Amino acid sequence: MLEAFYATERGSLEDATINGGFDLHPELVWIDLIAPSQEEQQWVIDAYEQNLPTLKSLEDISSSARFYRDDDGILHISTYFLTKNKNYQVDNESDEHDHMLATVQTVAFILNKQRLLTLRGEKLVSFRAFRARARRNDYEVDYKDPVWILLGLFEAKLDELADILEDIHKDLEKYSTEVLNNHHREQVLDLDDMVTRLAQQEDMLGKAQLCLIDLRRILSFLSRPRALGSHIYDGEIREMSEDVRSLVEHTAFLFQKVRFLLDTTSGFINSEQSDTIRRFSILPSLLTAPMLVTSLYGMNTTVLPFAHGDFSFTAVSIIIVASFILPTAYFRWKKWI
């Protein structure tokens, strides 16, 4: 899929209809390629004489080559975007990605003085949010300058990460209530399932932290002198850098909360297992006295009381039951069972 946008007189972005390479006019300021076909990639190459990386090559880029300016002055950036998995399913054998709450996608940005080219493998929420914001242009940003499109997409990425972290925080608060409520934990909660849910939240936090650290490195690169060719973007970059710093700190707090809940849940699981083992170890002790009485009266001896008589069976049965009930009552009084 190939989408293109041009800037209006008031600086907002509007969609351009693309039916072929002949529609890629010079006034287009943003070309967005979403899992493009070879034909669509060739349209861009022919129209703007700009080579494009393949989607496979984006996954193999080393961290040291994720942002640079080439000999022609064109800025190349490859960065991670985190998106929630709407197709998430607990049990699904069809696709391994459906088992994850969120996935990380690599997006390539190619920026020159006239336009911005973006290449990604699938649709992303942050891109859709930015397009809606750029159409309204509430802050009267001049998107005729493609640098503002680049920074706007990074800001939308930051907003998406903030929303994901907020959702994680809400989920952890709910999990805390479930784990720490004794009645709910003992009667309703499946502790093994809780461990799985917490592990999934920790996995998503790790991916969010990866995206934040990656964005912090990019913003640090863009803040260098002559990185973008002007100082008018410095204020926006500094503001986003502060937001990234605060989100990294919040992510560290959420990591601590997840680990606390994991440790607490694991402790309750160990406690339940210990209680089960203790109950099984106490059972032989409770049966020792009845078995002893049964063994003695099974020896066909005349010395024992109630060994003979019309009510001997009843009397011996009462002794056996009493030898079981009395230790059981004592153990309960001691709260051993």
Keywords:
single chain, about 325 residues, alpha+beta, Beta Polymerase, domain 2, 8 helices, rod-shaped
Provide a concise account of the structure shown.
The chain is of the alpha+beta class and 337 residues long. The protein is 55% helix and 13% strand.
CATH topology of the largest domain: Beta Polymerase, domain 2
Number of structural units classed as domains: 2
CATH superfamily annotation of the largest domain? CorA soluble domain-like
Overall shape: rod-shaped
The rounded distance between the terminal residues' Cα atoms is: 66 Å
What would CATH call the class of the largest domain? Answer: Alpha Beta
In DSSP terms (H or I, runs of 4 or more residues), the helix count works out at 8
Question: From the 3D coordinates, which CATH architecture of the largest domain would you assign?
Answer: 2-Layer Sandwich
Query: What structural category do the secondary elements indicate?
Result: alpha+beta
Could you tell me the mean pLDDT? 85
Percent strand: 5-15%
The largest beta-sheet arranges its strands as: 2-1-3-7-6-5-4
What does the largest sheet look like? 7 strands, mixed
Topology order in helix (H) and strand (E) letters: EEEHHEEEEHHHHHH
Proportion of helical residues: 55-70%
Strand count: 7
